[in-house]
Amino acid sequence: MAFVPGQPVTAVVQRIEIKKLRCNDNLILGFSIGGGIDQDPMQNPFSGDKTDKGVYVTRITPGGPADVAGLKMGDKIMQVNGWDMTMMTHDQARKRLTKKKEDVVRLLVTRKSLQDTVNHSKCPYYKNHDNPNEVLK
Amino acid sequence: MDTESTYSGYSYYSGRSRGSHRHGERSRDRHKPRSKDSRSEKSVTINTPPAEPLLGDSAVRGEQIQDDNWGETTTAVTGTSEHSLSQEDIVRITKDLEDSVGLDCRRYFTLTLAVILGLLVFLTPLAFLVLPHLLWPEKLQSCGTACEGLFISVAFKLLILLLAVWALFFRPPRAGLPRIFVFRALLAVLVLLFVISYWLFYGVRILDSQDENYQGIVQYAVSLVDALLFIHYLAIVLLELRQLQPSFSLCVTRSTDGETRHYNLGQLSIQRAALAILEHYYCDFSVHNPALLSASKSRAAKHLAGLKVYNVDGPGNNAAAGLAHSQSRAMIAAAARRRDSSHNELYYEEAEHDRRVRKRRARLVVAVEEAFTHIKRMQEEEQKKAPGDVMDPREAAQAIFPSMARALQKYLRTTKQQHCHSMESIQQHLAFCITNNMTPKAFLESYLTPGPTLQYSRDRWLARQWTLISEASVTSGLKDGTVFLLKCVDFSLVVTSKKIPYIQMSEEYIDPKSHKFVLRLQSETSV
Lengths: 137, 527
Hints:
The complex is a heterodimer.
Chain A: E1 13-19, E2 21-23, E3 26-28, E4 31-35, E5 55-60, H1 65-69, E6 76-80, E7 83-84, H2 90-97, E8 104-110, H3 112-122
Antiparallel strand pairs in A: 1-8, 2-3, 4-5, 5-6, 6-7, 6-8
Chain B: H1 7-17, H2 19-31, H3 39-42, H4 87-135, H5 145-169, H6 182-207, H7 214-241, E1 248-254, E2 260-265, H8 270-284, H9 294-305, H10 320-337, H11 342-372, H12 380-385, H13 393-414, H14 423-435, H15 440-448, E3 467-470, E4 483-487, E5 492-499, E6 524-526
Antiparallel strand pairs in B: 1-2, 1-5, 3-4, 4-5
Keywords (chain A): Acetylation, Cell membrane, Cytoplasm, Membrane, Nucleus, Phosphoprotein, Wnt signaling pathway
Membrane topology (chain A): Peripheral membrane protein
Domain PDZ (chain A): 15-112
């Protein structure tokens, strides 16, 4: 999940579609985010590379829309509805997720176990070999 | 029999307080191995009045093995004790005699030379001023106002020169160095040449031609005195100021026990550096104690005595050198293979010694503290009220000394310091401490740790006559890596010098406004 500056970021991602839940006057998704380019990446307990300033899922409300959709704690959010999330400030990320006009958010998330699964399924000899399914710009 | 000796006073005390332990002590002394008698025990001084520092041994008594028995009932010490000189003392006396004669000759020689030069220098301007009046008084122009003003200037400058020369040169000499002091000799030669050239000029141009311009002559004399003041400035810079800036770090190690110190000195010649180091030696290094080396010597002897090499191949072998070489190699190899347990012995011996020292020290501290409680300083008012048993410090010291004498003696013997302190010096020190209201701890401080050499009396220094041994000439300057030795009768000081490095410093400017900080954020938002 580490990136090389100047090179395209490659990762194995999973598509997750979350339907927002209307609660009083708010649309809630049921998870919390942490991280961002204006935050301190060293405090991130979920990232493999402690210089990764991406946006991570830090908490999932059990039984909420995110939990139902299959979002897991520790996922790194790569895209929200087509918008890139890898170079976003914390506040911008929050705004992208909480647009009042959108009922559904489609996320592309990545986690380490995805890469491991791909490696195992391809060939048992492959270890830590980056062979992505999707190439993201 | 000197019944009025100082011992009779406290023999009464010690007899009373330690009656039951006396015989036990004596028998233990008897069972002590005689081989422990080291050189230091022989050179203990028993101060029968008058005290004579050169006399080493005391009488050999029938029942007492220990020599210094000033802590126990000394019924045995009488005026009939034998006095004898040990070999070292004889050597020391002869050396002192022959050296003092040689040194004095040289000292007086240089002193007379210096006095002659000084007189020449001071009388020259006066002679320049007076001679025209004596030789051609009628031709001489009268001295106007400006000229008489110059007289005052000459007088004051001469006075300043006199004071300056007295301050710089007429100080008691610190030491006698092996070679001449190069800078001083150069300066003396410079002054001499200078004065001679002035005299030459004066003799040729003024005396021969009998010049009438007296003001010119006075100005000439003033210029001489000015130039002499400048030469004195040069002398100050060369002799005093040049070596103030430290540029060498000298590491001084004593060859017998390895005590090491470092000193920073400026650019000096080797002999002057050696002098500076010796002055520091007396103040900083702890006193040389030969009794502490006996243990390592006995260990070394045991190593040597362990193996003997026999040649089984017969006498028809290589040259003697090759034979000796192979012999020593064989010994070294055998010693390496031998399973030696001397390290074990050393470890346990040292642990036992430390324990013993600590125990004796504890007893000593308690005894001294108790002794100090027996006396009290009398206040002014009380002095008038009770003129009963008033004592001056020396008597007070003698009164309380016996109660701590034994513990102190045992402690000194355990730490092998007993030859550094005589009973008289201990009582003197005790009186001194009592007079100055010092605590028992302050009194003990000089006995618990060996102090610098200066602290002890002259005859215990074991370091009086020094020889400078150097491969480079002793008047050459110090360089990086210079090594020289200062040898004295019992030990030597090894001195190595290292240059203090040249420091290249650069500067970095920090704008005070550039100190800015930002919080590390780690916020979590729920969406």
